[in-house]
Write a structure and sequence with these properties.
With about 575 residues, this protein is of the alpha+beta class. Helix content is about 45%, strand content about 25%.
Length: about 575
């Protein structure tokens, strides 16, 4: 049984151990950013309290084992240069190998007397060693190592203290892991959200969306070069990047289309419709002479990841990430790039859909009026097409003496006249924002204020009719020289009509039904060559802006009473620009 001196010594040592452990805990409370300080404090206190000459903490990372903390009488640079240069496997050749193999604390009393130990005998000049694993669940993520220059074993009390220090170091490392995982997850979610917001706010600015994708992929996946290619037939060409700028890429690849083939990593990703991950692109392209191999050698591209942009089973392009060292991307990084690829594919599909709709709208405009083509492809089109009631101004126009001309002229001559007539009238209709309901031979029906509202639609109709008459007179003079005696008559009426889709499945028109349509048609039939007849309501709406003369009451088919009519001579006020 010890005396008072021993008791005082044990009490002092106990207080020193508690103070050391408390100091480490105090540093840990500062947060994950203090990991290096925590590990250095663990190593320093372990060496001091366990009477060791040197102590180190080795940590297993994605790039292998590395010394992350050191304390004692050995040069840290010397230790870093000569420790862990070879992969450490679970075996008895080294202390760390034994810790990995035994999955627990391991001690070597004298390395010179141990027949299995053959690593570092004459290098570090240490005799007694002890290693304690740093664990995360069943995994060993590091080792706390103490060394003595003389063959003196560590006591059970010292080993127990080391294991306590190792637990603290493990907790500190795991806290950093959890913090980084949370931070990385937040960064990923933020980046994905940024791209989605860009797609939402600039859906048809494809370059902006793809540049955003490339920028976030480069940052979060620690890639030194990111490019996005877009498929075009049997080739692909640059759509975004490189991020950051890469002169070698611009010189070798640039905007030139590249053939899609199995001889390139990007081509393989496209043809196989799956991510292609190559650890060393220089080795992969060693025997090739194409632009991909040249780029790998010139830019020192080593690790390369290519992920296809797939939408509805179709590959729309490929995103490629590169590193200048052999450092494969993690599974988490590959999954993240897949997400970015999906977003890029959505952006491309949106733009292609928009371009398709615009192309179809332009094609429709060749057969329908631009307003109806716009209506058919708009979000509110279905509702309007079902039917609605609105005040419109209707214009009917046709050629005088056309029947006699068609009976006496050759079909080619008739067709030529109609083509010139339709072309000239069609340009005027579009210019004045009229809706062409139909044309049949020499007759046309146009209305205003639907589907798009038109301010002062009565005046706009009269203005259009006057422009048509002026254009027709120029054509008529040329036709007269060829013996064609044709005239042009117009009827205009305004009132309420029911508008919408009419016809049957497979053949629909957008039309107007109502007395206003019949009145305009009857006025057109009564108009003499060069005459524009207006209904009384149209006359009232345009009398301050147009020169008109009263024609008198006309007896029109289908109307029980005579209808007052007026002839438009000209428009006094210019069209608003």
């Amino acid at each position: 049984m010890g005396g008072p001196a021993d008791f005082e010594r044990e009490l002092s040592e106990s207080r020193a151990r508690e103070a050391a452990l408390a100091a480490v805990l105090g540093i840990m409370r500062r947060g994950p950013s203090e990991l290096t300080t925590v590990l250095e404090s663990v190593a320093m206190n372990a060496v001091r309290l366990c009477a060791a000459d040197n102590g180190s903490i080795a940590r297993l990372g994605s790039d292998g084992w590395r010394i992350v903390a050191n304390a004692g009488d050995i040069d840290p640079d010397f230790l870093e240069r000569n420790w862990g240069n070879e992969p450490i496997a679970p075996n008895r050749r080294s202390l760390t190998g034994r810790v990995l193999m035994d999955k627990g604390t391991t001690a070597i009393v004298d390395v010179l007397a141990d027949p299995d130990y053959d690593l570092g005998n004459g290098l570090f000049k240490f005799r007694s060693l002890v290693g304690v694993p740093l664990t995360r669940g069943p995994e060993i993520v590091g080792v706390l190592i103490l060394r003595r220059g003389e063959p003196k074993p560590f006591t059970p009390e010292q080993i127990h203290l080391l294991e306590t220090f190792a637990d603290q170091a493990s907790i500190a490392i795991d806290n950093v892991r959890l913090f980084n995982e949370t931070k990385d997850a937040l960064d990923r979610q933020t980046a994905i959200g940024d791209v989605l917001r860009t797609i939402g706010s600039a859906a048809f600015d494809l370059e902006l969306v793809l540049e955003e994708v490339a920028k976030h992929a480069a940052r979060l996946c620690q890639a030194e070069n990111v490019v996005i290619f877009r498929t075009s037939g049997n080739t692909y060409r640059l759509a975004a990047g490189p991020v950051p700028p890469n002169p070698d890429f611009d010189r070798i690849v640039g905007a030139n289309p590249q053939p899609i083939g199995l001889d390139t990593i990007v081509g393989r990703a496209h043809l196989e419709a799956r991510p292609i991950h190559v650890a060393d692109a220089v080795e992969y392209y060693r025997e090739t002479s194409g632009s991909a191999g040249e780029l790998a050698r010139a830019s020192k591209v080593r690790t390369l990841l290519a992920v296809p942009l797939i939408r509805d089973g179709i590959v729309l392009g490929v995103i490629s990430l590169a590193r200048s060292t052999v450092r494969p991307f993690t599974a988490e990084a590959v999954d993240l790039v897949r997400t970015f690829a999906d977003q890029a594919a959505i952006a491309i599909a949106n733009v292609e859909l928009f371009q398709t709709v615009e192309r179809q709208r332009q094609e429709l405009s060749r057969f329908l009026s631009p307003q109806v083509a716009e209506l058919v492809t708009s979000e509110d089109g279905a509702k309007l097409l079902e039917g609605h009631r609105r005040q419109i101004t209707v214009v009917f126009c046709d050629l005088r003496n056309f029947t006699a001309f068609a009976e006496s002229a050759e079909p080619e001559e008739v067709l030529g006249v109609l083509r010139d007539y339709h072309r000239a009238m069609g340009e005027i209709i579009v210019k004045h924002k009229g809706t062409l309901e139909h044309f049949a031979g020499d007759g046309m029906m146009i209305f205003f204020n639907d589907p798009l509202p038109v301010e002062h639609h009565e005046l706009q109709a009269v203005r259009m009719a006057c422009a048509m008459r002026e254009s027709f007179e120029e054509m008529a003079r040329a036709w007269q020289k060829r013996g064609y005696e044709l005239g042009f008559g117009v009827g205009i009426a305004t009132g309420y009509a029911t508008l919408g889709r009419i016809g049957f499945e497979g053949r629909f028109d957008y039309g107007a039904i109502g007395n206003v349509v019949i009145l305009a048609q009857r006025l057109s039939a009564e108009a003499k060559a060069g005459q524009i007849l207006l209904s009384q309501r149209v006359q009232a709406a345009v009398e301050t802006d147009a020169e008109t003369t009263a024609v008198g009451d006309l007896t029109l088919k289908g109307f029980t009473r005579p209808v007052p009519a007026f002839a438009a001579e000209s428009v006094k006020t210019p069209a608003r620009s």
